[in-house]
Input
Amino acid sequence: MRDQLASPGEERARVLGSARRYFRQRMQLGFDHIYKSPPSQSDLAYKEKLIRELYQRIKDCSRCPLHSTRNHFVFGEGSSNARIMFIGEAPGRDEDLQGRPFVGRSGKLLTKMLEAINLRRADVFIGNVLKCRPPQNRDPRPEEISLCEPHLHAQLAIIQPRLICTLGRIAVQDLLQTTAPLRKLRGQLHDYQGIKLIATYHPAALLRNPSLKRGAWEDLLFLRQEHDRLVE
Ligand code: URA
Output
């Protein structure tokens, strides 16, 4: 996270640490190159090819124990050329059964949230920090996150969204490498490796606690405003 209290030395150590972690994880995953010529922002066919290749490479992942309890690996879905990427926590029961992200009750609410700001699921990319369901929907464990993270990093490297919207505490804390609570992270524009990032509530939290919906609506309007700035 761009921690306002971090000294320049701490900030440098944080950036170097995350770069080291990124390259080490890519090597562990069998990548023998960083994309030599990264896709340009609008190169849809090339990005689709890279996304298909990535899917083939990781769909049978067995890096963490969650592979032995899953029904499906949930890669994520949407446009390979999306300007906005929504990132949740981990597949739930319905997602695990169908192999698709956000298709249960939370997913239906997420679809409505998108529609409320004139976005369709097909326009964006929807993914998760973890690609496999934790048993009983328990919180992801740190070691599961660090083993699964390279998959998300690879998706981000290919899609190159201009804006990320994290859903819930786990995704924002992971991407920004912070332990700050979600309430402190909402309502501001963060930077994730040059990509703008906005944090909002997880739809499941909105279902449990409808009084959070007002704040979620403010987050969505903020997201739409930043989206419109991109196309100006
Ligand atoms: N919750 C998540 O975080 N992700 C999903 O895909 C579904 C529910």
Remarks:
- Residues 33 and 136 are 37 Å apart (CA to CA).
- The chain has one domain: 38-230.
- The domain at 38-230 is CATH 3.40.470.10 (Uracil-DNA Glycosylase, subunit E).
